[in-house]
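ok trying again, last paste got cut off:
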Amino acid sequence: MDRYDWPRIYKAEENIEAQVVDWVFEHVCEYFGVEDVTDLTDAQIAEIDEFRSELHEYSIMNIGYNTLINHHEAHAYEESVA
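nice, full thing came through this time. structure:
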């Protein structure tokens, strides 16, 4: 009998990550009444970051909040050097 395996398991992991990111982006945009996370203010990002810091360190939702904050910071940086 062959040993158990899950070829291309990374595809399942990518799908889960994408779903979590979508949920966080949608929830944050709806909560703050913005069209895109790049429309969030620094104060709103700080509030989101504070919430994120209260999550359990192994919470799957950290993926979404980390992505959101990184996306916002990258956009702010691009705006500042443009």
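cool. The chain has a mean pLDDT of 95. The chain has three helices and no strands.
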